[in-house]
Design brief:
This protein is mostly beta strands and 111 residues long. It is built from no helices and 11 strands.
């Protein structure tokens, strides 16, 4: 099973980005999934999680109301819609499907 994250980039404060994490393999729809992020010199931070069916979601306090996690089990893809981005959202974002971690995608928010 491999995870391929994409969608990161450079955006101005207040802008939006959509991250995707495509999974190859057969167990995607059976696993909960999550996004974490890590900024330089900081510990990894929980961003959002979603159950295997997508029926429930959970968000870190710093992104509540601005980010939305979702998934398409038919496409084996996890998403993170990020709105009202702030410079403090700058980090490498990692997707997790079950215990597997994607390679990360850089998000940079300029002030």
């Amino acid at each position: 099973v491999q995870l391929q994250a994409s969608g990161g980039g450079l955006v101005e404060a207040g802008g939006s980005l959509m991250l995707s994490c495509a999974a190859s393999g057969s167990t995607f729809s059976l696993d909960a999934a999550a996004w974490f992020r890590q900024a330089p010199g900081k510990e990894r931070e929980f961003v959002a999680a979603i159950t295997s069916t997508g029926s429930r979601t959970l968000y870190g306090d710093s992104v509540k109301g601005r980010f939305t996690i979702s998934r398409d089990n038919a496409r084996k893809t996890l998403y993170l819609e990020m709105n009202s981005l702030k410079p403090e959202d700058t980090a490498v974002y990692y997707c997790f499907i079950g215990s597997l971690r994607g390679q990360g995608t850089q998000v940079t928010v300029s002030s």
